[in-house]
Structures are given as C-alpha cells and as structure tokens.
Amino acid sequence: MTPPTPQEPPAGPPTHKALRSLLPVLAAHRAMTARTCAAALVDQAALVALVTLAAHTVGTAVIDGRPPSAGTVALLVALAAVRALATWREMDLSHDLAYRVLALLRVRVFDGIARSAPARIAGRRSGDLASTALGDVEALEFFYAHALAQLLATGTVFTASAALLGTREPWLLALVLPAAVLLLALPVLDGRGRAARGARTRAALADLSAETVESVDGLRELLASGALNRRRARLRAYGRRLARAQRAEQSWEAGAAALRDLLVVAAVIGVVAVAGHSAVEGRLHGAWTPAAMALALGALAPVADAAASLGQAGSLRAAAARVRAAADAPAGAPAPSTPRPLPEGPLGLRLHGVRFGYGGTPVLDGVDLTVRPGETVALVGASGAGKSTCAHLLARYWDPQEGTVTLVPEDGRPPVALRDLADAELRSAVAVVGQEAPLFHGTLAENLLLAAPDAPPEALDRAVRACGVDIIAAGLPDGLGTAVGERGATLSGGQRARVALARALVAAPRVLVLDETTAHLDHAGDADLAAALAATAPGRATLVIAHRPATVRRADRVAVLEDGRIVEEGTWEELATAGGALTRLLSREAAATP
C-alpha cells in the first residue's frame, strides 16, 4: 500500500527566517551562551596554535639543527592541556545550553498547541503534533550544541590564522581565502535543494510518527477488523518513503563532504608548494613551510566543519519552521487585553444571535438560548445540527463569528461575555464534559483532581459519591490510588463517564455543560446521575445535550435545534403534545431504531 504523497515543499528561494527564529530563545541564557562561545573559541585557537607551533618546532630542529627549548616544550604541553580542558568545557557547556533551550522550546510548542486547540489543530493528527513537540525539537539540538558556538569560533580563528599567513607570505593568503569562500559557498549554492530535501525528510518522519501513534492507539480495532496486515503494509510504505528521503539527503551530504575534503587538501598542497618555493627564494624561513601547512590545515578544517553544519541547514530549517509554526500559532480564542472580573454568586448563560461555521460552512445561524441559574435545559436536535458546536462555544474553544455568549449573574448585574474573561476564571466557572472525555495515565485520584488540584478532601468525597465513583473505586485494587491506564483504558465507557463528570464537579462550576456525557450509561445510571447533579448544586445552570428521551424529559425546559436555529422551546409536556419539531425528531429517531 502506498501512503499519500505529501505536499512538496515550496520551490521558492530558501529563507533563513526559520533558523533566525531560534536565536531569541537564547536571550534567557545569555551568560551560558557567552561562556559556550568563549570555550569553543579557546578550543579551536588552542588546537591551531598547538599544531602550528609543533610544526614550526620540528622545522626548526630539522633545518637549523636546534632542539626545542624547555620553554617551547612547556608551551606545547600547556597548549595541549588547555585544548583538552577547553574541549571538555565546550562540550559540557554547549550540551547543557542545548538541553535547557530544548526544554524551553518543548514548553513553548505545547503552549502554542494548547493555545490554538482545537480550532487550529482539528485537521492534524496527534502523531504529527507529537513529532513536532519531540522529534523536530530534538533535531534542533545540533544547532544549539554543535553549530552555533562553533560557527562563531571558526570565523574568529580563521580570520586570525589567515592574517598570520598573509603577514608571512601574501600568496599563502591568496590560496587559503578562496578555499574558505568556496567551502562556505557550497551549501549556499545548494540551499534550495537542501531545503527541499530536508523538508521531505521531516515531513516523511512526521507522517510515519503520526501513522505509528494512530496504529498503536487503534490496535484493538485493527485486530478486531482483521486490518492489521494492511496497516503493517501501510507502515512499511511510510518507512520506505522516509528511508528514500533520508538516503537522498545523506547521498548529497556524502558528495558534499568529499568535495570539501578535496578543497581543503588542494589548498593545503598549494600552501606547501608556495611556502617551499618562498623558502628556497629566501622570502620565508624554511621552518615555516611545515608550520604554514599546519596553520592552513588548522584554519580550513573548522571552515569545512562549519560548511558541513550549514549543510544540515535544510533539515534544521524544516524542523525549525515546524517548531516555530507550532510555538507561534495564534490562539483559537484570543485572550482579552483587559479581562473583566466575574461576580460571585449563581450564574446563568445566554447565547444571543450566535452564528458560527467551519471553513465557510454555516452550522449555527442565529441561535438564541438562555439557561437561568438553577435551571436544567436540554438541547436536542438531529445529528450534525450543531449541538456540540454550542458546547464548544461555551467552552470557548472558538468565539462565535456573530453574536455573543455571555454569563448572566443572578442578581441583575450586567452579563459578562466569555471573550472578556481570563481563561482561568472562565474554566473555574464553566465546565464542559463531553461524551468522550479521556482520562490521563495516572491514578483515579489524580484524574479527579485535574481541574482542582487543591480541592479539599470533602469536595472530592462529595463528587465521588454523587457520581458513583466510590463504587468504582471499591472494586479496584488500590481504590482511588489505582492507575487507570492511558485514556482510562482499564475502565469501561460508563465508568469513564462517571469519573469525567466527578472531575468536573470537584471544581464546583457554576455552569455545567453535558455533551452526551451519560450516553455510555444505562437508564438507571443516567437517572441516578441526574438526581445526584440536582442535589449537588441547586443554583447551578446546566445545559444537557442528549438524544435519550428519558434524559431530555427530566430537564426543566427543552430547546430544539434545527437548521442552525432554536425552532422550538418549552417543557417536555408542552412540546411532546404540540406535534412540532420535537415530535418530528423523536419520530425520525424511533423510525431509525431497529
């Protein structure tokens, strides 16, 4: 099976904006960055000085018959020691810096994903997001640990070495300088190709990661449907595509490495020839012939390494672009510039003239709905009518494109729009519990305290008893301390629903939105939860989105959503006898039930 062909990266001129975006994050580590660059500079300078002095000492001994002095030997030993210490210090500092920066980048990527969710990640796969948060961020370790300080040190050391060669013999500078320019020009000339190859590799890796995560998550379904072999073939196809992209990238890099070595060797041979000729003509002391060779090699080798680092720019640029896009993603619902405080006391909620759609397709077309404090309203409608969209707007995953969603104080004070509330205050006042409310890999107690980690024990106990979680815990080996597995895999669907609802109640929200929360429960369990909810907070406004008639019947009022509008509203008895939209909806659902 062939995986879908990814969109090719843009063929425009390569840009360094993505890589430049990696520099500001170093502002929080200026001192460590400076120490890393200084250590890299000392490391490279000590090596060049060591090999140059050693070569000059050997040349002097051979030509003049003069053994090295004790001072020269001591200096060579000191340079070797300094170089060893500088190498250790540079590696220690650069990796410490890199890992600190990567930790900060991971947090920024997570913050960007959380800020833009779900509005801007609805079409992305969780494995792709994980690849950005982990793989793409990890790929940038090379930039921070192996490229940044080395590039700065290389420029300084090469300039000093080239200047020294030029003072000894100008023709030596004429050989070394063009070689350095050619070395650095190679990755620049192939910049567009490198960017394209790097983007293909990162995209293929992200696709394989997403496919792998999706396959592991759906392993039970794959086994049950007999699709495991087809999925295995699909994974192999994704793996082959990644291997092709990596081979193409590495083949080009191998050729570039050979060309770099050829340039360095050619330049050094030229330096030896010119230095030897100058020594014969008396313009240069003979001891400087091996010294010039060592100095040229010491100056050009770091330049070749820098060119190799620039050769990684294509893959780094692709990873940096993905990290930057995730970290800088705009908020799906922007935070208010001046948040309004939310008054104490019971709250109602109101949707007024709300219009909203996805990708230009309208879903809600002027919804007007009010839930008063202490009231339970059931919102019903056919599948796809927009009921869950209403819940998402109340959770402020999105803002309405027209109209307002407000919280209305009971005492007559002005309503407060959700868009004017700070996120923490909104989450403390409004709780939305969906049909699929995944639990996290941790204990039952940790999941229950997710929204209110500092909740007092009595609040946890009330919520646990109200939702029947105490009965669930009694059947587990460690009670509330039992690990529930990823997404609550060790619990049934009905048990997860009870835990999710209890998790919301622990935080004592003043507005509760239930989006098919009890769909996994039987009628008796549904009725028990409804009674418990009514008893736990009589002043709470509750919006229940449900299909089950028994659930809807218990509400104080019923609102019917049809064609993006509330077309009918009243008590169950009023609407059931009116023969209107609710009756039509129930008839269609009854006819569709075998």
UniProtKB/TrEMBL annotation:
It holds the Pfam family ABC_membrane. Its main location: membrane. GO terms for cellular component: plasma membrane. Residues 349-588 form the ABC transporter domain. PROSITE patterns: ABC_TM1F, ABC_TRANSPORTER_1, ABC_TRANSPORTER_2. The keyword Cytoplasm does not apply. Residues 38-315 form the ABC transmembrane type-1 domain. It is a multi-pass membrane protein. PANTHER family: ATP-BINDING CASSETTE SUB-FAMILY B MEMBER 10, MITOCHONDRIAL, ATP-DEPENDENT PERMEASE MDL1, MITOCHONDRIAL. This is ABC transporter ATP-binding protein. The lineage of its organism: Bacteria, Bacillati, Actinomycetota, Actinomycetes, Kitasatosporales.
